[in-house]
Amino acid sequence: MAKVVIFGQRDYAEQALYYLTHDSPHEVVAFSVTADQCESDTAFGLPLAPFEEVQDRFPPDDHHFLVPMSGRSMNHLRERFYLAAKEKGYPFISYISSKAITCHNEIGENCFILENTNIQPFVRIGNNVIIWCHNHIGHHSTIEDHVWIGSSVIISGRCTIGSHSYLSSKTLIEANLHLAQGTLTGSTSYLKKNTEPWTIHTGNPATPRKVSSKDFDFL
């Protein structure tokens, strides 16, 4: 069991508290956000510590961290605080729902994998990856670091999902594809071809948009 500090004070943080409390051996002991975002001394009934001084109140020697933030700015915002907490010396937990199906997969740190996700044999998942519910990740696929996967996404076998990609809900990806770094898919997109870095793909079959995913921001 680990004592865990969660980064955040809004919906994603509250969901992480629920899952860790009801479906993990870990104990959430505090939340943390930057000092300018601290709205009170507590969040969801637990201490809320400014990130700038969290290591003084909850030392990394006996606390773990979880940064379950959204995919905003193509996952760069979550990456920023994940790396900042790592620099403070924190180890990280990963949460994998007891209702997810896994097959002795290699799964990195600071991952958040929700219920009814099916991860087939020989899938590898990197660090700082968020996988929402009801997904299928086919055999021998690789999910690189700093990726967000929405609900009801199907990734067929032997695919690679490049770092900082964002797969919107109900995306379908054919087998053996390589989605380059920073690929963004629209909801219900059907990808049949490899992608170029920092591109947006929508439709069935999916086609690239003219705007770069680097210029696309969302909640």
Report on this model:
Strand 1, helix 1 (11-22) and strand 2 form a beta-alpha-beta unit. The chain starts with a strand and ends in a 7-residue tail after the last strand. It is of the alpha/beta class and 219 residues long. Helix content is 13%, strand content 29%. It has helices at residues 11-22, 54-57, 76-87, and strands at 3-7, 27-33, 42-43, 46-50, 64-66, 95-96, 106-107, 112-113, 118-119, 124-125, 130-131, 136-137, 142-143, 148-149, 154-155, 160-161, 166-167, 172-173, 178-179, 184-185, 190-191, 199-202, 207-212. The longest helix is centred in the first third of the chain and has 12 residues, at 11-22. The chain contains three helices and 23 strands.
Q: What's the overall average pLDDT, rounded?
A: 97
Which class do the helix and strand fractions yield? alpha/beta
Tell me the number of helical segments per DSSP (H or I, 4 or more residues long).
3
Strand order of the largest sheet: 6-8-11-14-17-20-22-23
**Range of strand content:** 25-35%
Distance between the termini: 32 Å
**Topology as a string of helices (H) and strands (E):** EHEEEHEHEEEEEEEEEEEEEEEEEE
Largest sheet: 8 strands, mixed
- The low-confidence parts are none
Shape: globular
Helix content: 10-25%
Rg from Cα: 17 Å
Q: Based on DSSP secondary structure assignment, what is the total number of beta strands?
A: 23
Keywords:
3 helices; single chain; 5-stranded mixed sheet; alpha/beta; 219 residues
